[in-house]
Amino acid sequence: MIKWVRLSSWIFVGSCALIISYYVLFPHVWHCQWIDFSDFKKINPRLYISTKIPQKYVHQADILVKEARHSIEQLWGESQGRGTVIICSTSEEYERYCHSSEGAGCSIGTPWGESFIILNLDGLNVDVIAHEMCHDELFCRLGWWTTTRQIPQWFNEGLALMVDHRFVSSTDSIQRYIDYQEACLSASKGGQTVLELKEISTMKGFFGGDESRVFLAYMTAATEVSRWLMKEGTNQIPYFIYRIKAGESFDDIYPFVPPKGMNKRHQ
Questions:
Q1: Which of 13, 39, 44, 230 is the most buried (most CB within 10 A)?
Q2: What is the Cα–Cα distance from 114 to 15, expressed in whole angstroms?
Q3: Distance between CA atoms of 82 and 42, rounded to whole angstroms?
Q4: Is 209 left (phi over 0), alpha (psi -120 to 50) or beta?
Q5: pLDDT at residue 23 above 80?
Q6: Which of 169, 159, 94, 155 is nearest to 126 (CA)?
């Protein structure tokens, strides 16, 4: 009996230590997971809005999220993303859930399948929401491990820019590629500074450096992905992801030419 009590005590202490460590290491994930117990207003099971946001923006936010999801459906064929959208009012709220004060939005994925999209008021527009939803779409289809270990950051960001029209507005595949080429040339100061894809394949490589370098990384990624989609078409995206999910390596199949007659979507 005494041994059982001691074992139970150790289990209790160990569990408490694990929970505390988890909160200390990943406080933003903790806050996202417990959003139901915050003062955020639950609009629907996948949308929470800060109570500090004026009521006139609440309905607008719901509409923007739906429009962004429509953009995802146009690129991917259908939306499988399950990310919970959390819209913050203040920089303090945004940093609490995103664990960063930078940017208009961020996306968070966990190894056990939960995902969250955090937005501040600057991110309350279709482009930013769709951008983060595209990250979530990739994560939900491939899972945390495959996405973080196999997918280069340039591909992840470049694909997200295909539904984000803040920098290039054209939806025509050829014109979009041309426009991104020009934007990339401008960002590189006429080709004086060039980034190789391998330099921006990791989070650190992509976001390391000053603002101008990060912008060049975005334009470099978008130029490459728009070139690929111009050649293969957006209907190949689900098939490409299907092959990676089936165990093929990204490096082995990108860029790829689909088998003859392969034009149906794979989910």
A1: 230
A2: 21
A3: 16
A4: left
A5: no
A6: 169
Share of the chain above pLDDT 90, in %: 65
Q: At residue 130, does pLDDT exceed 60? A: yes
Distances from the Cα of 175 to the Cα of 66, 129, 229, angstroms: 26, 23, 12
Token couple for 107: 């996306």
Confidence of residue 58 (pLDDT cuts 50, 70, 90): confident
For tokens 């999910």, name the residue. 245
Q: Smallest Cα–Cα separation from 134: which of 104, 169, 105, 159?
A: 159
First to last CA, the chain: 54
Q: How many residues does the chain have?
A: 267
Query: Hey, CA dihedral for 120, 123, 126, 130, is it positive or negative?
Result: negative
List pLDDT tens digits, range 77-120: 999 988 999 999 999 999 999 977 788 899 998 888 899 999 99
pTM of the prediction? 0.86
DSSP 20-41: HHHHHH-HHHHHHHTGGGSS-E
